[in-house]
Design brief:
2 copies of one chain form a homodimer. With 381 residues, chain A is of the alpha+beta class. In chain A, 33% of the residues lie in helices and 25% in strands. Chains A, B: This is N5-carboxyaminoimidazole ribonucleotide synthase.
């Protein structure tokens, strides 16, 4: 507890944009987020007073950081599982716990556990050598999807393999892998829930996520044209997984929608890009919800604030031309209702430097506005 | 400009809750607010990285603070006018400027200027001695309202005088005063606008403000039952005053509604308690709007996000009983849709420690929910 305010202190390991936006939510709750950042120039470190510099792989640094925190949580999934377990052993309230987070950190463990739980998953297999991939492809047909078991994000750590030769070259890199069938998907969805230690769960409306080159570029809330039945099934699946895995905090379940139903693609246990729309688009943002969950507050309303909400990521465009500040002027002049979120990051081509959210009554119109707003910020035109 | 981000730096003099909430808005715009606070325990200083400690009455401290800021603005109106003028003379972009802010700082100057502009104001008179008050009351009848020309807020610096004896006792304190008629008001309203250096103005929906013991306890947006004609007149008045006084940033015009129209009570030139509802209740919050104005960005949409929005202030309750954190748990359980804003302040009876906002379709219901939420946080029941 912060004795100056009588309110709790949450520590977040990692100083990226998720911590930055969580801090905005913490301020409303009377708190100040404490972050463990790699550098004072990290996205969150630029805007937070209570910044500690250190590495998320350094157990001593984590231990020191956790002191006097009412709860510790994460901006990313890269803290070694054994460090989390060690802190748990010392009585630190750290969420999600090591037993849950493991399934977001290790795709092999995740797939095995989901299959055990009877959750819908693509056909998959652990990979020890090229022969495993070839045998799997003999059943499903080429191409197949290979995934690094750890550390992938934004399309990194995922490969489409079309032949035994390609499989051989990937296996030769020594990356621990699993292999999955290439699911004949209609589109991607995401179901976001938050769960508290008490066991209360709040589910957000299911959204459609639109990817380009493996990177999420747009999120549509609610997912257009999704049947109530399938939406409820996706929410229920996420709720069941949150309970079964013992998640505390947010759980984002990335889903493929096929002609016959939904299958789980990935799990994330933190605020997630597929939930950024909730800052303005839901009564309680995912960032506040995550704080409420890890502090065991009752969950907030997940109701939509408008019939159609679209979030578009802003990627760094080519350098040169208009500055980012000039682009912002033009966007504000073009669309006074667009909501902008910049992450305080240097512009690099392809890097997520922010997002925009547009709300309205008509999904087609809202989507066009959001795409135009993101384009203005990316390309200055 | 912050060279790490390519985005501007705004400095705010004063570390209160207005700076705290402005920082939340700054984060979305890719910025970090810089504050000049009296103490590291000030409301805003608790949550901001870029805090400088110093006094707003120390010209050298202000000058040092303003270095490398793209614009400087205020959390309160207590910076000496001559210091602002000195910084302007040195080329600092400081908003609102001294020529405008004077009319928010000095009620005598404000009344004189508004009268000159033909704005509707209560009958009033400058006060040099008790005879001035008595002569004025002879025209209007007792009681009359005396106001300190400088430094009043939240009911402080305002006195209801019922007799020459009471007037004498007040005049004897040496406080510089003006005297005004007691306006037969139906209710109080507020019109909030923002104006940029370019001269663009954005007007928010006119709200009703409900006072108790001179402190604003509730704000209803939009003002219930206000005719379109009178709402537009109030907005136009605020726009005209913003232009005439050369305001840059926010201008809040506190109004009395009488049987025959509106009259101006007070002016404030900063984010204002009557605009806190806009964080969730308007597409662009007053805090972001103020930043956009002082940076000469195009203004954001002021559209309501729900048909009925109510903000209720949370005052410190009696000590003892439930802690503030326990109260928050109970409120969240009772109303999952209530939006809470705590200012990081020690609870002291009567002190504004936060506010809650509730949104919905029906003003009566929304108002009841907001009042109940504020009562939970104040009284724990």
């Amino acid at each position: 507890m912060d004795t100056r305010t009588g309110l709790p202190v949450v520590g977040m390991v990692g100083g990226g944009q998720l911590a930055r936006m969580t801090h905005q939510a913490a301020i409303s709750l009377g708190q100040s987020l404490r972050v463990l950042a790699e550098s004072p120039d990290d996205s969150a470190a630029l805007v937070i007073g209570d910044v500690r510099i250190g590495s998320h792989t350094d157990l001593a640094a984590l231990r020191e950081f956790a002191k006097d925190c009412d709860a510790v949580t994460f901006d990313h999934e890269h803290v070694p599982t054994e460090h989390i377990a060690a802190l748990e052993g010392e009585g630190v309230r750290i969420y999600p716990g090591s037993a849950a987070l493991l399934f977001a950190q290790d795709k092999g463990r995740m797939r095995a556990r989901l299959a055990e739980l009877g959750a819908p998953v693509p056909r998959w297999r652990p990979v020890n050598d090229t022969a495993d991939i070839a045998a799997f492809a003999a059943e499903t047909g080429w191409p197949v999807i290979a995934k690094a078991t750890r550390g992938g994000y934004d399309g990194k750590g995922v490969w489409v393999l079309s032949s035994p030769d390609e499989a051989q070259r990937l296996v030769d890199t020594g990356t621990p892998l699993i292999v999955e069938e290439k699911v004949p998907l209609r589109r991607e969805l995401a179901a976001l829930v938050a769960r508290s230690p008490f066991g209360q769960v709040a589910a957000y409306p299911v959204v459609e996520t639109v990817q380009r080159d493996g990177i999420c570029v747009e999120v549509l809330a609610p997912a257009p044209g999704l049947s109530d039945e399938r939406a409820v099934a996706a929410q229920q699946l996420a709720i069941d997984l949150a309970h079964a895995l013992g998640v505390v905090g947010l759980l984002a379940v990335e889903l493929f929608e096929t002609d016959t139903g939904i299958v789980v693609n990935e799990l994330a246990m933190r605020p997630h890009n597929s939930g950024h729309w909730s800052i303005e688009g839901a009564r309680t943002s995912q960032f506040e919800q995550h704080l409420r969950a890890v502090l065991d507050y009752p969950m907030g309303s997940t109701a939509l604030t408008a019939p159609a909400v679209v979030m578009a990521n802003v990627l760094g465009g080519a350098s040169g031309g208009m500055s980012i500040d000039e682009r912002l002027h033009h966007l504000f002049a073009a669309d006074p209702g667009a909501r902008v979120h910049f992450y305080g990051k240097q512009v690099r081509p392809g890097r997520k430097i922010g997002h925009v959210t547009v709300l309205g009554d008509d999904m087609t119109e809202v989507r066009a506005r959001a795409a135009r707003a993101a384009r203005w910020l990316q390309e200055g035109k």
